[in-house]
Each structure stands twice: as C-alpha cells, then as structure tokens.
Amino acid sequence: MKQREQSRRIALQALFQLDFRGEEFGPETIEFLRASTRDPEVYFFARRLVEGTWAWRAQADRLMQQAVEHWDVDRMATLDRNVLRMAAWEIACCDDIPDRVALDQAIELAKRFGSAESGAFVNGVLDHVLRIVESERAGGPSSEPPAPAGPTDVARE
Length: 157
Hints:
Blueprint: H1 3-21, H2 29-36, H3 40-55, H4 57-67, H5 78-93, H6 99-113, H7 118-137
C-alpha cells in the first residue's frame, strides 16, 4: 500500500473518532496516529490530514451542505461525512495534492469502509464540492478563506 493511502486510512480512523467521541478523543489523537504506523512519512501526512481537516470542518460542512440540497450534513453516515470532509479540505486547501487524486482516494476509502452506496454518494457530493471550489478559485461567489494547511493542535480543537 502506498504511503499516502495508508496515511488517509489512519487519518480517517482518527477523524471518525474525533467526530464520534468529540473532545474526549482530542488528547488521544496524536498518540493514536503515532501508534498506527512506524513510518514517519505516513505519520506526518496523516497528522497533517487530521489537523487540517478537523480545523477546517465547518468550512467543509458548508461546502458539503451546498452540494447536498435537502439533506443535512449531520444526518450523513459518520464515515461518509469524514471522508468528505478530508477530501474537501484536500481539494480546497492543499495545492500539493491534485484535486482528482483527493477525489479518487476519497471514493476508494468510501467503497472500502462505507456502505454499499458510500462510493457513489461520496463521488456525487465531491463532484459538486469540486465545482464549487473551482468556481470560488475563479472568482465566483466568495466564501471564508481556507485555513492554512500547516500544523495545528488537534487536542485543543
């Protein structure tokens, strides 16, 4: 398995726990990431994903809400919601990750760990999110500026 794929799997597990358990898991997040791999590159990319996604989740939820009219983000399956949040953050905030790579990796995560419908659902939502982000990049309707992609302290969030 490629390092970034492994990082995304670990990051998804941490994001799921943060979303499900809330602040109770915050202090444990870094230790969870450390215990999940011995590869420093996997650890640091997973940490970047978790910290960036978690700090930017309100903006990701806003994008997802725009993409899924007549559906509440809070009603999404926890796994799907966090796959979408992570991919939305990668698309909107990570210039070093091609949008299509973030989208494809999210679909694969959803297919592997979600329900039978998760892959198609994530694909549809992220297609809309990508169009919204591309429109905003091109000077379309303005939104809150993306949070910097640098490290933050997940435990404080």
